[in-house]
Design a protein that fits this description.
By secondary structure, this protein is an alpha/beta fold. It has two domains: 1-30; 34-351, Rossmann fold. It has 13 helices and 13 strands. The longest helix is centred in the first third of the chain and has 28 residues, at 2-29.
Length: 356
């Protein structure tokens, strides 16, 4: 027994330490692990942004880190190649969204808002406000912060199919970090966003683990948690949303979306409002887009955009035509978010709306 313990202390533990050090070097140099910025809760504004200002890094995707994107946290805590100014010398466009606008999959100067800025930056400021996990209800919360801080003239809401279910508190009771709608038979109440003290910002153990390239590689590049979840999931997903839940909760979705569109309209008098609705891309690739179960959401957004007087840009038809003509997918094989081609394509579609 003593010899066994001695072997562990003298041989096994030092071997493991050396192996870990070698892996740390490997996942920093040869195959760099994903190094995302982490979100911080702004107590005064009640929203998640990023920290610290001025931080930079590279996000990588795939087990060989085949897709990479350079990111930068600007002076106001948003991922952007430029700093934001509260004063204005020309009209300002604010782009709202989730991880598609956060856009870690591409260099931050290649995202859809950045491409838009490069095309019309002589006539408009273009500021983007994107954070992973945000939904339509949180965009409304972000819009209020942006109105107070940056006084935009044009608003672009980049929606996702999962934005609708994730806006409803009854279906996401465990997630209270962003604004949602508590819907009862006779009232709708907005939940108050609050910090999650288990997040990296507040948890020194997570901050320490995050410094390890090995840990980041396992969590972000191999996506171990998602792989395990998929092993036990029996649901069908389209547009990153459960098809079953979309069909089951149609009435709640309609109620929530009507309320949120009404808030956007009421709180932004005189502003140009554009709603961008995604295409079910994997159905486009499979040639089954007309059979997609999430197109109900596209139809709902189209109807409400007309009702509330918003400009509406549905990407389904244009992406379908482009894919049929060119055979180029809008995302890489390693991640479902838009790649550089996808961001450029969306920017061109938004530009086609006209910008005097």
């Amino acid at each position: 027994m003593r010899q066994f313990v001695k072997n562990i202390l003298i041989i096994s533990i030092p071997t493991l330490i050396v192996l870990f050090v070698l892996l740390e070097i490997f996942f920093r140099v040869a195959v760099p692990a994903n190094d995302w910025p982490y979100a911080c809760f702004d107590q005064s504004e009640r929203i998640f942004k990023f920290c610290p200002p001025g931080d930079e890094g590279t996000a990588t995707f795939g087990w060989l880190a085949s897709q990479r994107g350079r990111w930068r946290v600007n002076n106001h805590g948003w991922v952007s190649p430029i700093d934001y100014d509260t004063s204005k010398s020309k009209p300002r466009i604010a782009v709202f969204g989730d991880s598609y606008i956060e856009a870690q999959q591409v260099d931050c100067d290649k995202s859809f808002p950045s491409v838009l800025r490069s095309e019309i930056g002589d006539r408009y400021d273009v500021y983007s406000f994107g954070v992973s996990g945000a939904s339509l209800s949180e965009y409304v919360n972000m819009n209020r912060y942006v109105n107070r801080t940056f006084a935009p003239d044009v608003l672009i809401f980049n929606l996702r199919h999962n934005d609708f279910l994730e806006s409803i508190y009854e279906l996401n009771r465990g997630d209270t970090i962003m604004m949602m709608l508590d819907i009862t038979d006779d009232s709708i109440t907005e939940t108050r966003p609050r910090p999650d003290y288990s997040f990296t910002e507040f948890n020194w153990k997570k901050r320490l683990l995050r410094k390890s390239a090995v840990v980041r590689y396992l969590i972000y590049n191999l996506r171990i948690k998602l792989v395990i979840q998929n092993l036990y999931s029996r649901d069908t997903y389209s547009g990153n949303v459960s098809v079953t839940n979309v069909e089951r909760h149609r009435e709640l979705i309609v109620t929530a979306t009507e309320y949120l569109f009404d808030r956007i309209k009421a709180e932004n008098p005189g502003r140009r409002i554009i709603v961008v609705m995604p295409a079910p891309r994997h159905a486009i690739y499979d040639g089954t887009v007309t059979e997609s179960k999430v197109l109900f959401l596209n139809d709902l957004v189209a109807e409400l955009s007309i009702e509330y007087g918003f400009e509406h840009l549905d990407l389904t038809e244009s992406m379908t035509r482009d894919y049929e003509a060119n055979g180029i997918e809008f995302n890489s094989p390693w991640d479902a978010h838009w790649d550089e081609y996808g961001h450029d394509f969306v920017a061109r579609q938004v530009l086609s709306l006209g910008w005097p």
